[in-house]
Amino acid sequence: MIREFREFIARGNVIDLAVGIIIGAAFTAIVNSLVADLINPILGLLTGGVDFTNKYFVLSGNVPEGASLAAARDSGAAVFAYGAFAMAVLNFLIIAWAVFLLVKAVNRLQRMAVRPKEEVAAGPTQEELLAQIRDLLADRTAWADRPAPRI
Fold it and tell me: Which helix (H) or strand (E) holds 16?
């Protein structure tokens, strides 16, 4: 059983999956930093300092005026957190764009690594070869019907 487990772990696809998960986690951290540290401040600057993550409507319950989204949720009130949703959509779009660019770059590298094979000079087709064989056999048959030459 231990041997089977070692063989399972040693397979290339399991190791590739593990590497993909680790790189994905690191990539997520980079994208989250991109959104939180670069894009949110720019959006805040363009919208006059508005932070979208704390935008919400109170559907039911009592929330102190100007409370953050976390405080509103902690108070037990039902809130419609449209700002957090908008930021999640923006985060998704940024991640999708970054993955698109990454896949595009990897595909370009793969195309550069695999050089197209040189075209081989086209020889006769199968039909042409069969016709040549037929003609050779016909010539041989014609010689077989002739009398043997006298020496």
Answer: helix 12-33
Tens digit of each residue's pLDDT, the chain (151 residues): 888 887 777 776 777 888 889 988 888 888 788 877 887 788 778 878 767 788 888 888 888 888 888 888 888 889 999 988 988 888 788 878 877 888 898 889 888 887 666 655 678 888 998 998 888 887 766 656 666 656 6
User: Which CATH number fits the domain that encloses residue 42?
Assistant: 1.10.1200.120
| Residues 61/77, Cβ–Cβ less than 8 Å | yes
DSSP reduced 3-state for 78: strand
Within a domain: residue 133? no
